[in-house]
Design a protein that fits this description.
The protein contains twelve helices and 14 strands. The strands form four sheets. The chain has a seven-stranded parallel β-sheet, with helices on both faces. It starts with a strand and ends with a helix. It binds guanosine-5'-diphosphate (GDP) and calcium ion. Guanosine-5'-diphosphate binds next to helix 1 and helix 2. The site of calcium ion (CA) has 7 residues, from helix 2.
Length: about 325
Amino acid sequence: MRITTLAGGIGGARFLRGLRDGLAAGTGAAEITVIGNTADDIDLFGLRICPDLDSVMYTLGGGIDEDRGWGRADEGWRAKDELAAYGYGPDWFGLGDRDLATHLIRTQLRTAGYPLHEITAALCRRWEPGVVLLPMTDDRVETHVVVPDGDGTRAIHFQEWWVRHRAALPAVAFHQIGAESARPAPGVLEAIREADVILLPPSNPVVSIGAILSVPGIRDALLAAHAPIIGVSPIIGGAPVRGMADACLSAIGVPTDAAAVATHYGARSASGILDGWLVDTVDAEQAADLPGHGIAVAARDLLMADPARTQDLALATLALAQELRR
Ligand code: GDP
Ligand code: CA
């Protein structure tokens, strides 16, 4: 079975680990391809940093800091302190000593002219994530957030809005800078076309999944794919489980609820990208209208609180896909 997934950082990575391990524990031999969000990427201190690709790589490779959910386990912050002692900013981005090695290698390979998909494959040779991890594009695409500024507005990098300001500045709009001319990385469209199942983990609908969909060709490929497309709600009981997806959804006029996110993605029968949607049991009633609009619904425990529950959730997406295929 060929499974293709889109993924942001924490939500995507945890789901993928459950999927990989759930399949390994059963009989299901599967080839998993992950199309990772790169619109959170940023240049800092001359280094190219790809937070979402790294979250997937570290989580699946066993190197993640489980409590923070991002960055390396057993991390130290001496380089960051040293930069701060020089008064050299920005000081708000978590740049760990161990993590720094990844950014140094990526930047060096990039300077030597390698495309991001090859660099990512090279880094994954160490981590052996058990999936094929592809960046959505080799081209530079960055999410910028338009925020109020005096009588007007200004645009800041997504990381500045998210990490520095904790999403507290009201977001007027999100723009994926560079998306219009970006091309899907090699392998991305093929993975969508040739998949038996396509999964959308509970990643941020605006700045993770939305950013991946901003790359021309990806949305059309999803629409045309022969595989069923099943998504998992990142919203439970009207709130994101982690992070500030509510601030992102508000900016694009989507209510923070599980059914509204599904409607935002839309049914494939109506030129959207979903065939099925998993909601938490607390949201079952609220999602009752979705099947009437072409989106099959399964209600489950959606909290990825431990490995067993996460694996159950991941396998439930495959079960719904199986049901839809019949
Ligand atoms: P990021 O790039 O690190 O922000 O990660 P993603 O975009 O992949 O995922 C962020 C989303 O994951 C947030 O909107 C959370 O609500 C969602 N999320 C985190 N943990 C869980 C969980 O245990 N269950 C569900 N359903 N969603 C989760
Ligand atoms: Ca992210």
